[in-house]
Structures are given as C-alpha cells and as structure tokens.
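Hello,

Our lab assistant flagged a job as stuck in the queue for most of the afternoon. It eventually completed. Since we weren't sure the result was trustworthy after the delay, we are filing this so someone can double-check. Below is the sequence as submitted and the structure that was eventually returned. Let us know if re-running is recommended.
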Amino acid sequence: MNSIVLLAGAAAQGGNAGASGQGGSPIGLIIMMVALFAIMYFMMIRPQKKKQKEEQSMRDNIQVGDEITTIGGIMGRVVTIKDDSLVIETGADRNKMKITRWAVSTNNTANEKLEAERQAAKEAAEAEKKKKIEDAAAEGKASRKKSKKSKDDTFDE
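-- returned structure --
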C-alpha cells in the first residue's frame, strides 16, 4: 500500500514538473498511471474474480442431500434443486425453506469430503514414509550383518 502512495506522489511531482516547465515528461505520468492500474488489477481485481468463480462453481455443484449453510447462517440439508432456488430442511422438525442459490455460503458436505480426502492422503503419505524408514532400517541391519560376517571371515584366515 505504501508503494502505491509513493507512486502516486512521484506521478504528481512529475506532473507538476511538466506544468512548471522544468523539463518533466507527460510520458512518465502515463507510465505511472499504467503501473498503478496494473498493481491494482493484480492485487485486488484478479483475486476477487477468482474467488467469485470458485463460489459460483460450488453453488452449481450442489446436489440433493448436501448440507449447506446460507449467508444468513441457516444450516440445512438440500431436498429439491430448481434453476435458481433450493428447498432445504432445517432442524429436527424438518421445516422446509425455499432459498435462492446465491444465498448459499458454504457446502458443508463438500467441505467434509475434501477434508476426508486430505486426511486420507496425509495418512497414506505417513504410512509410505514409515515404510521407507522401516525398509531403510532393515537394509541397514542386513548390510551391518554382511560387514560383520566379512570381518569374521577375515579373522578366520
């Protein structure tokens, strides 16, 4: 953020220098403005568009039976899916509510599946690592036995 303020200050000084006739160039001001726009695009606009695409794909991939949370904090299970709306059941009384798709904040079922997949991958990686350590330890014991046996053979001669 400080760099943006410094760039704006430098651009203003460059513009003042050109206006006062001290040899400032308007090209410098244009370059500063383009650089400022590029920084704002990569720091603010692009990440926001990426987040919106992810949210839209999450809303499009909702299936019957998924547990969701709305932007108002209502949690429920999806019963019916229509073009722009969902019908969810909430609570033990199974109250049904009709909501619009854009009101879905998170898909808890998808989050749970993703977390389960991550946990399974982590456990598999740990098991693989443990197996490699055990194999290396067994290989180390075998090589020590061979070297000990070869030492014993040299003493026998």
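-- support follow-up --
The delay was a queue issue, not a problem with the job. The result is valid. Residues 100 and 151 are 80 Å apart (CA to CA). DSSP finds three helices and five strands in the chain.
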